Amino acid sequence: MTIPTSVTDKNFPKSKPIHSEYEQRVPLVLIHGFASGVGLWCKNFDTLSAFRRVYAFDLLGFGRSSRPPFPNTAEEVENKFVEDIEEWRKNIKLDKFILLGHSMGGFIAASYALSHPERIVHLVLIDPWGFIGQEENTTSFPSGVRGWVVKRLASFRALTTMRMIGPFGLNAMRKVRQDFGQVYFQTSASTNEPCEVNDDSHDFAHVSSWSAGKKRSVASKMGFSKASSFDSLSPYDSSVVYNYIYHINVRNPTGEDAFKNMSMLGWAVLPMLPRIRDLKADVPITFIYGGRSWVDFSSGLRTRDLRPDSYVDVMVIEDGGHHAYAEYADEFNNYVNTIAHLVDEGHVFHAGGEEAVQMAAASSYHPTSTFNETNSSEVSPSK
Questions:
Q1: Please, which residues have CB within 8 angstroms of residue 51's CB and are 6 or more apart in sequence?
Q2: What does the alpha-carbon distance between residue 208 and residue 345 come to, in Å, rounded to a whole number?
Q3: What is the 3-class SS of the chain, one letter each residue?
Q4: N or C terminus: fewer CB in 10 A for the chain?
């Protein structure tokens, strides 16, 4: 196998038997984003895996995965990611599952769903990159010398500078990305919870969003809530996340090459939005965006418009950034667990409206202690 990180039977604790109902629940597969790895799901594994098997792996070229060369064209690179994920699925012997991807991982998850829709019972896209292409960018491409410079810069790998400065790269990353320390280790100023808002800038229906000081979390009514991850300062050293990100990105950057070949100045060469309408109509999609993220949630709204006969829900964590899954982990985990529970119950996700939220509000579901005691989120790399 070339996909090196997975959750297999050997990763599950043998001292506590896994409840048969736990085994029957639809598994969840997580795909991380650019320059990331399975470690950045650290604030999600415990809660999500309390109810079902959770699988995660480092994409080829990233994390602790192998670093094979990638093809040179965007289409070939995309197909390579999809083919290797399918190889991994066959090896794990998964049948149907909920597929969740963040950022670039959201793009790859959508591409996988297009190629293998029979495997996907729900597609969850977190701040997905690559839905909008350069041709839809309102900023004109510079010409002349400036255009030449921009094109030259676009040919460089994103993290080249960090590697070039050697041992100073870690400190440089700390300075440039101070937000990671805040996202993973510092106290949050507020707790976000669900509400309904209207987006006046688009001719679309409601966008579900989380914001502070609103009504009690819909997901918490289902029994998924835990004490907030941000009730106090983390006892862990914030250098851990920086060390992790730095060391998984100083290796042979073939994953960066893959991303570079799929993009132009950060925009997707083969944007997903024109293609998402071709996804089978019975595959429901939930988008979750950070309200302060650089990713525009209009891509989710436009997807809903392109798929009028399919379920497309758009959630916005109003105070969240691009890594809202970690920044507001409790709320994020609650909502993903809500979706997954509805899938387990055989809920039919009809086109239009936020049925998942409506069903959750009326639910009195509470997990048993058996499920809470069983943690199946551990992952281990295979060489």
A1: 22, 25, 337, 340, 341, 367, 371
A2: 22
A3: CCCCEECCHHHCCCCCCCCHHHHHCCCEEEECCCCCCHHHHCCCHHHHCCCCCEEEECCCCCCCCCCCCCCCCHHHHHHHHHHHHHHHHHHHCCCCEEEEEECHHHHHHHHHHHHCHHHEEEEEEECCCCCCEHHHCCCCCCCHHHHHHHHHHHCCCCCHHHHHCHHHHHHHHHHHCCHHHHHHHCCCCCCEEEEEECCCCCCCCCEEEEEECCCCCCHHHHCCCCCCCCCCCCCCCCHHHHHHHHHHHCCCCHHHHHHHHHEECCEECCCCHHHHCCCCCCCCEEEEEECCCCCCCHHHHHHHHHCCCCCEEEEEECCCCCCHHHHCHHHHHHHHHHHHHHHHCCCCCCCCCCHHHHHHHCCCCCCCHHHHHCCCCCCEECC
A4: C
Q: Which two tokens stand for residue 15?
A: 């001292």
Domains along the sequence of the chain with CATH: 5-140+192-227+252-381 (3.40.50.1820)
Answer yes or no: is pLDDT of 269 > 80.
yes
pTM recorded for the entire structure? 0.75
Closest to 161 in 3D by CA, of 39, 35, 70? 35
117 to 13, 91, 136, 366: CA distances (angstroms):
32, 18, 27, 30
Least confident of 123-132, 257-266, 282-291: 257-266
- 8 Å CB contact between 299 and 132: yes
Encode pLDDT of 198-227 as tens digits. Answer: 344 333 333 444 432 232 333 333 344 343
CB 2 within 8 A of CB 60: yes
Once rounded to an integer, what is the mean pLDDT over residues 298-322? 94
CA distances from 315 to 25, 214, 342 (A): 24, 15, 17
Please state the rounded mean pLDDT for residues 66-92. Answer: 97
